[in-house]
Each structure stands twice: as structure tokens, then as C-alpha cells.
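Mods, move this if it's the wrong board.
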Amino acid sequence: MKIVVSFKVVPDDQDIQIAGDGSLDYSKAHQVVSSYDLNAIEAAAQLAASNDASLVGMSVGKAAIDDSKLKKNVLARGVDELFMTADDACADMDAYSTASALASLLTKIDSYDLIICGDGSADNYAQQVDVQLAAKLDLPVVSSVTRLSVENGVLKAERTLEDVVEVVRVALPAVVSVTPDAALPRIPGMKDIVSAGKKPSDVSAAVAAYTSGIEVLDCRAPKQAERRGEIIDLSEDGAVARFAAAIKAAQ
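Not the wrong board. C-alpha cells:
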């Protein structure tokens, strides 16, 4: 059995700087794996370990994602092999173009039984790559999965919804997206990090020009609301009512 886990590399939000006009400066931001996809990698690694399966990681993005430290970080999390398309032609892609690039990258992988994605990315959180990829591959897709297992070639997926836990069974191959509740990302040990450097990775340029269907006109940080700086002494008569009224007025 072979499992493929897809992940996105994004700028570290702690390094993003905001200019006076609200524009975002990514020039000093390190490239990191999206936090949602760290959960997906761990869920995939646990599933692979419990089914004696191999785990392949894949990602597409701009040339900067071809970073040795980043690749080693992924391979140290239970991933056996890594495939990446690192090309500036893949920068700022929308969900549709990302799915197209991932589908092209999948042709390098001999066969696969299951593709696991995070349920969104830390930058855009469009929640569309899984369904777009499944449509391109003509495979069934299950989203918002909180627990998954494989029994006799059939995927059993639990979806925790607002008022019910839904259990879905689907024949493989299939595509699933998992929520952060699916697994807690591990902290790789020194042995994992050292062995990660010996694992195979395939990094190539884009095989085609991927055109986004969405045009971003502007992206700015929201203006911060001015603070009133009002202090209410809750020991005073009527203070709780004034406090509640102030909260309501600020909403």
C-alpha cells in the first residue's frame, strides 16, 4: 500500500511585516510547511505505520521551497520519499492551478492507494485543493476527516460535524482531507533528522505554465481599531451592566 500526502509551503506568518499602508512584506519570511499540513503529514504517517505502507510527500510552489532544511523537516516526520515541483511559475497559484500542478506531479509516482491533504492552508485557507485534485483524478473525495483507517482495501473515515459524527466508507484509491484534530504533529528526534538526509527526494521544474483563475487585486492587513482605554471597576454598583454594554457596543 502506498499513501501520498500533499503539503503546502507558506511564508512563516511570524516573519511577515506590515507596512504603514497595510501592505504585507514577505521578503524576510522563512518558508515553512503550513501548520494544517503538519497535522496531515502526521495523520498520514500514523496510517502508513499501522498498515505497513510507504508514505510519499509531494508539494508544488515557487523555487524557494527547494530548501534542504525544509525537505529534511518533512522527511523526518515519517515520510519515506519526497516529490516537489519548485518553480517560480508555481508562485501565487489558486486552488485550481495547484490541483493541476499536483496532478502532473503525481505522474512521477508509480502508483498510490490514498492521497491525504490538509483541510486548508495557513495562507489562503480556500479548502478547495482536495476536491479539485479528486475531480482531476476522477477519484472519490472525503473532506473534514477527523479519524481514518483502512480495512480490507476500504477507507473508513470519521467526519466530526456540528451535531453528529459521520462514518464514511469508500473504496480505494481516494482523496481525503483531514482536520487538525486528526493527529498532533510529532517533534522529530535527532535520529529522525539524521536519517531524513538519506531519504530520496525528487525536485523538478514545472512541466507547464499554470494559470490561476482568480485575480488578486490587493491584499492588506485590516486596520486596527482604536482602543478606548476605559477601565471599569467591577466592585462599583452597576459596573457589570456598564461592562456588558461596552462589550456589546464594541461588536
